[in-house]
Amino acid sequence: YTIWNFVPKNLFEQFRRIANFYFLIIFLVQLMIDTPTSPVTSGLPLFFVITVTAIKQGYEDWLRHKADNEVNGAPVFVVRSGSLVQTRSKNIRVGDIVRVAKDETFPADLVLLSSDRSDGTCHITTTSLDGETNLKTHYSVAETSVCQSVSRLEALQAVVECQQPEADLYRFVGRITVTQHGEEIVRPLGPENLLLRGARLKNTKEIFGVAVYTGMESKMALNYKCKSQKRSAVEKSMNTFLIIYLGILLFEAVLSTILKYAWQAEDKWDEPFYNHKTEQERNSSPILKFISDFLAFLVLYNFIIPISLYVTVEMQKFLGSFFIGWDLDLYHEESDQKAQVNTSDLNEELGQVEYVFTDKTGTLTENEMQFRECSINGTKYQEINGKLVPEGLTDDSPDGSTPHLVTHIHICTHKYTDTMHTQTGEELLFLKAVSLCHTVQISYDQPDCLAGGGDPFSHANGFSTNDMEYYASSPDEKALVEATKRMGVAFTSSNGATMEIKTFGKSEKYKLLHVLEFDANRRRMSVILQTPSGTVLFTKGAESAILPFTTSGEIEKTRLHVDEFALVRNTLSHTDHQNDKVQETIEALRLAGIKVWVLTGDKHETAVSVSLSCGHFHRTMNILELLQQRSDNECAEQLRRLARRIKEDHVIQHGLVVDGASLSLALREHEKLFMEVCKNCSAVLCCRMAPLQKAKVVRLLKTSPEKPITLAIGDGANDVSMIQEAHVGIGIMGKEGRQAVRNSDYAIARFKFLAKLLLVHGHFYYIRIATLVQYFFYKNVCFITPQFLYQFFCLFSQQTLYDSVYLTLYNICFTSLPILVYSLFEQLVHPHVLQNKPVLYRDISRNSLLSFRTFLYWTLLGFCHAFVFFFGSYVLMGEDTTLMGNGQMFGNWTFGTLVFTVMVITVTLKLALETHFWTWMNHFVTWGSIAFYFIFSLFYGGIIWPFLHTQDMYFVFVQLLSSGSAWFAIIIIVVTCLFPDVVKKVFYRHLQPTSTQKSQAQALSCMESLCCYQHGQSGCSRLARLLEQMTGNCQSPNHQSLLAIFRSWSNSENFYSSDRSILTLSPIDGSQC
């Protein structure tokens, strides 16, 4: 939206809804022809609905617009007219030379011209683009790397030619032509020269780059999917139901029109003595008369389509979304971040999720690696308080014999003294190898690191002290170098030719001969160093790439140790910190029937290790691989092998690992076979994924024949495409910028909050809105069916049964607030029960509460109640209308008012029967709505209003209420309607209870057992319990107040026994709670 197109675009979106468009047509019909009801009866509700919806959607779009302005208005510096000029990022044009400082994000795709380094290189992180946390080195061409000042850049004459914008993050082809002294020098440009928008400058003071792709042509923007309007499954069901009701309406209108003409076939009814036709009526066209009568009946019955349904749904979604932000369980205290709702249109979709697609880096993990343990020649060591300690020993041995390399390298009095003396050299060599075999960069511009003093070998939050900060090509490298520094062997400098370390304070220099970088084929990296004693090769990598080449030492012991470590690099174990309670969250989602797919840009080994550690893959799971496929035929054959294995081992759980290249081949020709394999796997891991590939996988599941509801969750710009593609997109407020949050439907601070968001909020939102939709159709069937039945008694003369004011206010005032409050506060089961018993989520899956069977039940119930309203009143008044004590007769308006009164009371009490969670607001609006109807009717009919042309209802309501027979009829009819509902509920709850109903009974039993009385004391009345719990006068020291019990229940890990959680709800007593 813009400020200019908001009105037309919003109106277009709103009139795409069937009910809105239908009521617009009805309103126009009422304006054009003579109809039984005033145009106000349709026009006023329509205007109200359109206005409220527009305000709500306009407010949400304004919030998104405000967030976009923060990015587009970010300050940047560009070189213009020989000086640095500050402008906004949205004003950058192709060809502008942009200056970016350390830790800033690149505002456009830039070709690197120069940096503050003499070699023209810079280091960047692309975490928000591809999820990789490693440091990447980018280069400038030699002819521009010397232009390190604004004046030199102003004098630079160069032309950059490159390919058209494309989404591939890893591909760039271009050339730069530099003119020097009249000579043109041409240099090629590749991905190593391009700085992508969204990446961040690290370990470099500043760089200058020329903008080649800006705005929506940048590679990051091209990886965004065009954001489309998302519509929930409930809204689609509503549209289906509206079409069915439109069919009922047309049937009733056509039937009434036909019966009218059938009735008028007799002369005495065609032109009775009291109603002679005019000359114009006699000469009018029969076809036009038929159409006019059909339209008149259409208007008369049009309220069977509930126009106020949409506005009530909009208000429920908008107001209900605040509960997510107010939920303290979704508040992250450390970062002071609460959950936020960007789009409230999808609240109920949170209760229908079948697949969760999650990023790994920053979502399941915290982008931090930490050294844990290692194996040195068959002996396992672990780090304890900055000391390398053999397994089974501690660093605080009373005899001071701990083999801490700093203090005990020469003095050892332990009984293992001989062993320690022989291993000291190996341990030291190990630490030196780790501190030298890497491509880590050092930054010394952290002068505040030592503020306040501190241990020079300590570190905090990933920053090394001693005014040094390490920047590594991978998070594991950084963790390892920092670990050796804590243990006394510190890497201190590297200038490309030499590397320097400090071994327990003593400086040692090594000449760097060559670096063999890590690649996917070798799966290891190596450095070749010149030492005083000769040339040394240090190598590290995956154990499968190292151990086969090992010829001596404790190889088998080391292999066993490697298998025990969770994450492995050579013979070292370190861990990428999981976000809190990730494993519990994934397990809860699995119990709820939700399949979890991990889509990441990380390497295969890292991704698998994290999947195992966070519980996505189980140790007992059979891991299938679809990796490094090079052709369609090879990919198809591997897929067939995997499918056969799954069929042969159908009892075992399977997990699938697939990489980006293989996925491209699978989706190109073998999509069906690939989907068959995936659906038979309990967990799927896709690694080395480009952003658009993530979106393609989500779309593949979305468009499969089952049409499952999908949810995507991530924290970086590389996750935006899948977040926009999924039915529900959730952004994590992590360390990778705010792109995912800005483009998401919901945002939470940590992955663990996803469990409550789905299992509790999603459950509540769905049952509330499902009941709201069904109830609206029910009460409108109750409303209009008597109108249809009345036509059989008035010769289909289109006489209305109700007064026009009642027609207008029925859905707006008399019956609107109870269902709105219900849809905001209803809780079928206590939130703690829903969280601790995820299997209850399955009860509402696949849109079960809006199935055709449920819809049919509510519709037939509405017709039955309508028949009881009409014929119950007819039996009372049909034969004898002298119900007044003075013999005064009732008329048609009194009959209609009696039907309307019974109807308002019955539909309100019907909702009361459906309510499980009563608050003071429920009581207020339920009984208040009935009272308001009586008070309004007394005032409306008891006073002559001067602005009304006619007042058919004058004194009608007062007369009706003065009749004892009328009161008796109201009570009898209401009881007749609702008593079968009560019997049905009791019957089904006892004989065929659902899992939710069982949980309600168990939870109630648990609550009843939580009585704060001494052991052996008899029970007490509910009121007495409530008073004692509220005042805190509990006598027993062994029991807490209900509030405290609820708190402990919330914090309990095993409220329900985990081994029975799928099948039954375990019985519990107060002590267990």
From TrEMBL:
<feature type="binding site">
    <location>
        <position position="715"/>
    </location>
    <ligand>
        <name>Mg(2+)</name>
    </ligand>
</feature>
<feature type="binding site">
    <location>
        <position position="600"/>
    </location>
    <ligand>
        <name>ATP</name>
    </ligand>
</feature>
<feature type="binding site">
    <location>
        <position position="360"/>
    </location>
    <ligand>
        <name>ATP</name>
    </ligand>
</feature>
<feature type="binding site">
    <location>
        <position position="719"/>
    </location>
    <ligand>
        <name>ATP</name>
    </ligand>
</feature>
<dbReference type="Pfam" id="PF16209">
    <property type="entry name" value="PhoLip_ATPase_N"/>
</dbReference>
<dbReference type="InterPro" id="IPR018303">
    <property type="entry name" value="ATPase_P-typ_P_site"/>
</dbReference>
<feature type="domain" description="P-type ATPase C-terminal">
    <location>
        <begin position="741"/>
        <end position="994"/>
    </location>
</feature>
<keyword id="KW-0479">Metal-binding</keyword>
<dbReference type="InterPro" id="IPR006539">
    <property type="entry name" value="P-type_ATPase_IV"/>
</dbReference>
<dbReference type="Pfam" id="PF00122">
    <property type="entry name" value="E1-E2_ATPase"/>
</dbReference>
<dbReference type="GO" id="GO:0055037">
    <property type="term" value="C:recycling endosome"/>
</dbReference>
<feature type="transmembrane region" description="Helical">
    <location>
        <begin position="240"/>
        <end position="263"/>
    </location>
</feature>
<feature type="binding site">
    <location>
        <position position="694"/>
    </location>
    <ligand>
        <name>ATP</name>
    </ligand>
</feature>
<feature type="binding site">
    <location>
        <position position="518"/>
    </location>
    <ligand>
        <name>ATP</name>
    </ligand>
</feature>
<dbReference type="InterPro" id="IPR044492">
    <property type="entry name" value="P_typ_ATPase_HD_dom"/>
</dbReference>
<dbReference type="InterPro" id="IPR008250">
    <property type="entry name" value="ATPase_P-typ_transduc_dom_A_sf"/>
</dbReference>
<protein>
    <recommendedName>
        <fullName>Phospholipid-transporting ATPase</fullName>
        <ecNumber>7.6.2.1</ecNumber>
    </recommendedName>
</protein>
<keyword id="KW-0472">Membrane</keyword>
<feature type="active site" description="4-aspartylphosphate intermediate">
    <location>
        <position position="359"/>
    </location>
</feature>
<dbReference type="InterPro" id="IPR023214">
    <property type="entry name" value="HAD_sf"/>
</dbReference>
<keyword id="KW-0547">Nucleotide-binding</keyword>
<feature type="domain" description="P-type ATPase A">
    <location>
        <begin position="76"/>
        <end position="135"/>
    </location>
</feature>
<feature type="binding site">
    <location>
        <position position="361"/>
    </location>
    <ligand>
        <name>ATP</name>
    </ligand>
</feature>
<feature type="binding site">
    <location>
        <position position="361"/>
    </location>
    <ligand>
        <name>Mg(2+)</name>
    </ligand>
</feature>
<dbReference type="GO" id="GO:0140326">
    <property type="term" value="F:ATPase-coupled intramembrane lipid transporter activity"/>
</dbReference>
<keyword id="KW-1133">Transmembrane helix</keyword>
<dbReference type="Pfam" id="PF16212">
    <property type="entry name" value="PhoLip_ATPase_C"/>
</dbReference>
<feature type="transmembrane region" description="Helical">
    <location>
        <begin position="855"/>
        <end position="877"/>
    </location>
</feature>
<feature type="transmembrane region" description="Helical">
    <location>
        <begin position="924"/>
        <end position="948"/>
    </location>
</feature>
<feature type="binding site">
    <location>
        <position position="718"/>
    </location>
    <ligand>
        <name>ATP</name>
    </ligand>
</feature>
<feature type="binding site">
    <location>
        <position position="688"/>
    </location>
    <ligand>
        <name>ATP</name>
    </ligand>
</feature>
<dbReference type="InterPro" id="IPR001757">
    <property type="entry name" value="P_typ_ATPase"/>
</dbReference>
<comment type="similarity">
    <text>Belongs to the cation transport ATPase (P-type) (TC 3.A.3) family. Type IV subfamily.</text>
</comment>
<dbReference type="Pfam" id="PF13246">
    <property type="entry name" value="Cation_ATPase"/>
</dbReference>
<feature type="binding site">
    <location>
        <position position="359"/>
    </location>
    <ligand>
        <name>ATP</name>
    </ligand>
</feature>
<dbReference type="GO" id="GO:0016887">
    <property type="term" value="F:ATP hydrolysis activity"/>
</dbReference>
<dbReference type="GO" id="GO:0045332">
    <property type="term" value="P:phospholipid translocation"/>
</dbReference>
<dbReference type="GO" id="GO:0005783">
    <property type="term" value="C:endoplasmic reticulum"/>
</dbReference>
<dbReference type="GO" id="GO:0005886">
    <property type="term" value="C:plasma membrane"/>
</dbReference>
<keyword id="KW-0812">Transmembrane</keyword>
<feature type="binding site">
    <location>
        <position position="602"/>
    </location>
    <ligand>
        <name>ATP</name>
    </ligand>
</feature>
<feature type="transmembrane region" description="Helical">
    <location>
        <begin position="889"/>
        <end position="912"/>
    </location>
</feature>
